[in-house]
Amino acid sequence: SSTTVGIVGGGPAGLMLSHLLHVAGIESVVIDLRTRDEIEHTHRAGILERDSVRLLVESGVSDRVLREGHEHSGIDLRFGGVSHRIDFQGLVGASTWLYPQTDVFVDLADARLRDGGDVRFGVTETSVVDVTSDRPGLLFTDADGVAHEVRCDVLVGADGSRSMTRLSVAGRKEYFRQYPFAWFGILCEAPPSAPLLIYTRSDRGFALISQRTDRVQRMYFQCSPEEAVDDWPEDRIWSELQARLAGEDGFTLKEGRIFEKTVLPFRSYVCEPMRHGNLLLAGDAAHTVPPTGAKGLNLALADVRVLAEVLERALRKNDRSALDDYTERALARVWRAQHFSYWMTTMLHSIEESSDFDVRRQLGELDAVAGSRAGATYLAEGYTGWPHG
Ligand code: DHB
Does the keyword Oxidoreductase feature in the UniProt annotation (predicted)? Predict the structure, then answer.
């Protein structure tokens, strides 16, 4: 069989691309190794930039984010046991939205179903072939065990940080940075402890207090990459989190039953270029950011917005040279976001080897950001997201 665009990966990047192509009148097929249920129940990030919200609503995916998401007009930066409000609305006139990635995924999967999209979850034996030819191919076996070969004009690899499509980008240069820590993430049954997210630097390490609903909260604390979740019974988690948040204002977290514990990987990665022949990469397949600053999902959505535009030019106006612009346009945002995520990470985390000088310098940096309109404005701009082009 054949289609116009073959997309590997049915997460937010792949599904949003398929949706945007549909709006432009371009047919696509999306495949994913995971079942819809598996994706729906994998907890990921929770913060959408202003333009990610606009994209969901204005492209016609769904306006559920506006009804069920929570607008956040800022964050609290907490250090030295004191909270400092970074007021996004006051500084840059923008907000972010608390709306879990699992909900973004559900909205996108439902929109593709609604619009008659061809999305195959739970496939096996996927591969991409002939990526430099005019008719590259997408091979897979569907959930019923039937083997398929779909010939396409263009293939897109949106298959996440352990991408297999990326391996077909011959001659790629890969940029890496590892960090000597990870995040321990929990979900708990408790009311919110504060109206906004709290990004905390403490001598015991970083902690982030996020939210999900009125009754479920998401929290993270810096841990070792080798940390074993079984070493952390509920009491130990709560006393560690409380200790990291403690300060002269007497702030305490509202505790509750913890029903999910995971250690999150932590690294920075970029693959360049994001294209080889008629194969283009999008989202985590091309770049990973550390989670501090919640840029990963937002970057993936920004990628596919550019990609949909480029593909529309290339396919409908039959101008293949349009594909040449993709890497440069996407990477401009990617490297800004790489810096932002690295900066938020290094400003807030503790490193075992740091000297007394490093620790004081870090506090000086936080003071300079929180205490200066210019410093706080940079944070607000990056966090709410640079406008989509
Ligand atoms: C969440 C995750 C992040 O990495 C972040 O910076 C903010 C919020 C979250 O899961 O809610």
Answer: yes
